[in-house]
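Dear Dr. K.,

Following up on our conversation at the group meeting, I've run the structure prediction for LRR receptor-like serine/threonine-protein kinase GSO1 from Noccaea caerulescens. I'm pasting the input sequence below exactly as I used it, so you can double-check it against your construct before we proceed with anything downstream. Let me know if the numbering doesn't match what you have in your notebook.
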Amino acid sequence: GKFPRWLVQNNTRLQGIVLNNNLLTELELPRRVHHGLQYLDISSNMIYGSIQEDIGIVFPKLVFMNFSSNQFHGTIPSSMGEMNGLKGLDMSSNGLSGQLPTTFWSGCYSLVSLKLSNNQFQGEIFPEHANLTSLFELHLDGNNFTGCIGEGLLNSKYLLMLDLSDNKFSGMVPLWMGRMSGLGYLYVRGNQLRGPFPHQLLQSLSLSVMDISHNSFSGSIPSNVNFSSLRQLKLQNNGFWGSIPDTLFTVEELRLVDLRNNNFSGKIPNTIGESSSLRVLLLGNNSLQSHIPEKICQLSEIGILDLSHNMFNGVIPSCLGNLSFGPETYVSQLQSLEIYVGESFSPNWYYTSDLHSITDPRHYVIFRVPTVVDLLTKSRYDAYQGYILLNMYGLDLSSNRLSGEIPVEIGDLENIKSLNLSSNRLTGTIPYNISNLKDLESLDLSNNQLHGNIPPVLADLDSLGSFNVSCNNFSGEIPFKGHLVTFDERSYIGNAHLCGRPTNISCNPTRAPEANASTQAEEEEDDHLIDMEWFYWTCGAVYISTCLALFAFLCIDTRWSQEWFYRVDLFIHHLQRFKRSAFRN
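The predicted structure tokens came back this morning:
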């Protein structure tokens, strides 16, 4: 229903209204009223329509305002520039559009947290006259903002979180970002930014997360790259080339590196073993080559390792079996990053929402930054985050030039859930101790040169949801039992010597010739019977046709028919004379 306007009109001393997670459909506020309300939360409703133009006049003393997850459309009212005391504003996940009013940038100078994510705002942002001097976190992701990133945030000296992802920004990363000494979390993925690696960010000593993925950056990474506080580096889906700097893996706090879908070449640096805290390493779809270094086995806390679609050769290091790929050391730093903003909102107020203000003993704004990793499992890319990411452990070495046998030590990765060794040059058999991987959900060994029988113990992998051993040299009967009965013949195609279900190839070839001979004899006998039947039918048809033709010929009164009957009568006459003479004698 409608927002209870009477609640505001009849309660002039009311400080907070919390009506989130209801079924409100219409917001109509009292007019020509200056109310002292400080907290207003109507998030997660179904409110449709535009925001009342004079909302900033009706509620000039608002401190926290949450209109997120509704169906608002239209623009942000210019009167919101009158809310000089507003510290927390969340209008994310609506249908708001248009440009942000100038009065908003200059008037809401007390803003600490601003969330306008997932709307349809457009135009250029960050004008030079922006006056957001107290801003701590800014979320503008998922809109249609365009143009270069302006310099309006130069006055925001306390800015810690900046998320401009999934817009249409162009140009280069501005130089002023390197002068933001407190900037800790930078997300600009999914834009049209270009240019070399933003070296100005190397000056930031506080940068913890840097996500510039899915843009058009190019060039090489500076050899002296060294972010002392960096935890996550995401450069995937750009045009970077050259070698991976040795100094990158010397960062002590580094937990996630994603360099996929670039043009990096050369070897994996030997310093890889120094990244003792690294949980996720994604280097797929580059041009890396040489052997997989054994120092990679020193990543004692690794949970996801992707080296696929490169040019690695040699054998799979047997020491990979020493990696953790499990919950013992894969702890919760990847789940979220909690940031606390020390700001006093109200002396006696407790509030919990997407933005939290807690008053015991001080007031804070808490925002969570989820870590998202997309990984190829079960023949598709899935995005993992939160607790699901914490429970995802995978190794992907597919589409390289690896040779030799699958090391038996792979069977020691008891907690791994996804194993992809496809499209290599691996030989030998499948190790029987691979049955130790009880949590395995996806196993892909296709497009190799593996041979021998498929181990029957694979049928005991009850968690297996994707299984592919196609295009190898396996032979013998498929162990079609246990959990393997859930997979069809597509998991086995390209193995000429495999037999049994679910293929249509019999495993008893000696009976086949006898069956074929019997079938051929039956077909010949059937052909013989069919020929004799047609012979009898043909003879009968000829006899009947001849009789009918003769009968028709005699029925016509012609000289030939008269001659015929004369000859018949004469023959009968002679026959009778012969009988009489014979009777007399």
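Two things stood out to me. Residues 5-372 form a domain with the Leucine-rich repeat, LRR (right-handed beta-alpha superhelix) fold (CATH 3.80.10.10). The two ends are 136 Å apart (CA to CA).

Best regards,
J.T.
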